[in-house]
Amino acid sequence: MATGGISVPLLADLLAVFIIAAGVGIFVAKVGRFPYTIALLIAGFVASVVGVSVQIELSHDLILLVLLPPLLFEGAATTDLERLRRNVVPILLLAVVGLLVSVGLLGVVGARVFPGFDLLLALLFAAMILPTDPVSVLALFEELGAPDRLATLVEGESLVNDGVGVVVFSALLGYVGSSADGGAGASELFSPSGLGTLFTDIALVSGGGLLVGLAGGVLAYSVMASLDDQMTEIILTIILAYGAFLLAEHYAADVLGFHLSGVIATVVAGLFVGNRGAESAMSPQTKIAIFNTWETAAFIVNTFIFLMIGVTTPVGSLLDNAHLILVAIPLVLAARAAVVYPLSAVANRFTNPTVPLDYQHVMVWGGLHASIPIALVLGLPPSTPLRSELRAMVFGVAAFSLVVQGLTMSNLLDGLGIVTKSDAEELYELLTGRARAVDAALSAVEELHENGDIPQDVYDDFTTEYRAEKDQLNQAIATLMGENPELRDEQILAGERRILQREKSVLMDAVRNGVVSSDVGEELIEEVDIKLDRVQEGERTVSERGEGYEEFWRQRAEEFGLGVGESESSEGGE
């Protein structure tokens, strides 16, 4: 029977991968509080040791071109841009300055302690291994109820330093190749002009990737804003995720002569569509469909990549190079600690709230290394000096970070006492989650009824049932908030922040469309920014009796002779 060019053995291997993954999933579900991705990695190790053969090559191109874009896009799209903005100083310090400094530190020390390594090769190893991967630790954070801000710091740093790390690696690899071919290599890199070129390249490649991602995000947003078709919008986000990566990483070179950062392009596109697009260009049903699709895609990709990392780990090579790996592991941790603590102290001088010392401990130990380092080391050309040693070191350090650091993360969080999700917060999430589902159901029933897809008596039964449940949920939420005033205040501030962000978005659209002139628009937007700053500091701008903030339009209207009266807060002496 003809197969039409489809490899049956390949399909069988894929099926074997997911059969193993299903077994791991059942085990994790029964055991509980065991990170699924780490369990997959261990299962892969076991399969490799006992001789289970999977004839799928985990190549550099497979990871970077096929598997990485959905992981980056989903991670960015589900990241709260406002939280990221509030923590931008420590995130950028750690992801950019911290990565560059730690690469330099590890390179200098590694050149002295790794047998046969010169400075350039040690720097290349540092650039490969130091970008962090938050997948496993963030999954554990969610299970344990760790603070959202800690998760934002870890994920935000990873999203940025992945892109910076790939740029630094690519630049260093060129110098390593030059040195191997008899060129200047290290002497050229460490000259003033060489360092200037390196940092210029990093800025151009990163900045260009940012612009590509932003342009792609704006284009996708403008199309989605005029659509209300779930399937088409899902396809648009898939095109955006892969298109931004390919355009920056490959096709830009045809125009510019050098590639841009596909990682940063995909991250920026995901941030834009996942925040601005979800806020203004997606219906509730479309939003649910898109995020569910990307959550499923990320889960499947993570399942495949972590299991394949375990299966393809060169166990024999790890044993042969154990002396290098055992030296590399503490050095990588030391390089991480050497930047997290000082740079957090610097960030704490300029930001409020500060990054607590307990958070810094978790950020050091939670700096896991997985898909990006392994993709980079698999992409080393055959002519790279000490290529087999570099591969063993990267796989060895990644295995240690994922298994040892990942499995001990819960103990660290418990020991530091920063697992903060209370029973009341968990119940609030349950109630509000169900309330959103009921709202979506009511909207769907209304749409079906308007289109004539369900008869009147069925419509009446559905709406009666769901509206009764919604009333009960609202009553339960109100009671819970009344009994937990801290939870109530937190949710009010969060809601007010989202409302103010929507106000700002509408004003910006009005200025762009010419409905409001730029000078008036700037004044209105500035006032919203003032309110947002007050909310960020924990101060409400709406009081229980009405307005908690006196907008400038009232005074202007009074000066013009319009009797608008005073706000309730003014009358109450606010």
Automatic annotation (TrEMBL):
Domain Cation/H+ exchanger transmembrane positions: 19-413
One BP term from GO: regulation of intracellular pH
A Pfam family reported for this protein in Swiss-Prot or TrEMBL: Na_H_Exchanger
Molecular-function GO term, any one: sodium:proton antiporter activity
Compartments it resides in: Cell membrane
This protein's GO CC annotations: plasma membrane
Alphabetically ordered keywords of this record: Antiport, Cell membrane, Ion transport, Membrane, Sodium, Sodium transport, Transmembrane, Transmembrane helix, Transport
Principal cellular location given in the protein's record: membrane
TM regions (residue ranges): 6-29, 36-56, 91-113, 119-139, 198-222, 234-252, 258-275, 296-316, 322-341, 362-380, 392-413
Protein name listed in UniProt: Cation:proton antiporter
Protein's organism: Haloarcula rubra
